[in-house]
Amino acid sequence: MPALKQFVSSLRQQLLADIQDYTPTIQSTIISLAMATFGKTRFASHIKFISLCLRQKIVPNGFRMKFHGNTVTDGNYNYRTNKALFDCSRKLMRSTVSSMTKRKDQYDRQMKDFRVQLSRDLPDSSHPRLVIHTLNRSLHQFLCDTKDSKLQRLSPAKPVRLINNHNHKLVVTIPPDLPLSDDERDVLGKGLNFLSRCNNLSMNLTIARTSTNSTDACA
After folding, report:
1. Do the Cβ atoms of 107 and 45 come closer than 8 Å?
2. 130 occurs within a structural domain
3. Helices (H), the chain
4. Is residue 23 part of a domain?
């Protein structure tokens, strides 16, 4: 990441300008503490980004495996190959997260040692520690912006949801010129959920009419 290296280099230059009044020994301790702090922030950002990609099943460019089976055109083979490459990439990502976590913990231990040393050499170390905190916050923001932009490029495009603000209730009206009897209008006026019931239903008559209709349809 050339941009990241340049940004960290600029932070180092700002730090040197702010601590030039201290002795060389104290300057060395301050620089060591700052670089350990920057290192922990960098690896924490990388770990967070890769872990997020794992959860979203996204493979960053640096972890993508390539294989070209030019002599094989079987679709099932291509599917198995792509799945194997995808699984391999995810294993590399998990391994990288594990390795980076160890590096981050190493930087954390170094920070504690340098803080103790700085407090011993400079009892009032509030100013250099404030400078380191301010610079580290700038680095954190730079990394967040970089990772967010990269994640947006890697993420698949989300479908656009069309929101309909119209009322979803459907109103059905009867045309005024439609010829209907009073009984028909009375039934339709009861609504779409109305179901008519016949209390005097003759089973024999119903079977006879059904048989007649079936015979006519098959004729």
Report:
1. no
2. yes
3. 2-18, 24-55, 75-121, 126-154, 182-188, 203-218
4. yes
Given the structure tokens 């947006």, which residue do they identify?
152
- List C-alpha distances in Å: 151 to 46, 50, 92: 12, 10, 18
- Asked if residue 144 belongs to a domain, the reply is yes
Domain range enclosing 74: 2-154
Q: Within 13 Å, how many C-alpha atoms sit on residue 196's CB side?
A: 9
Give pLDDT tens digits for 103-119. Answer: 999 999 999 999 999 99
**Residue 105, CB-side half-sphere exposure with 13 Å CA sphere:** 6
DSSP secondary structure of 143-186:
HHHHHHHHHHHHSPPPPPPPP--S---------TTS---HHHHH
62 DSSP 8-state letter: G
Structural domain count, the chain = 1
Token output for 164: 């309909």
Q: Which amino acid is at 55?
A: R
pLDDT of residue 208: 59
> What is the predicted pLDDT for the residue at 119?
94
In this structure, is residue 49 part of a structural domain?
A: yes
The one-letter amino acid at 214: S
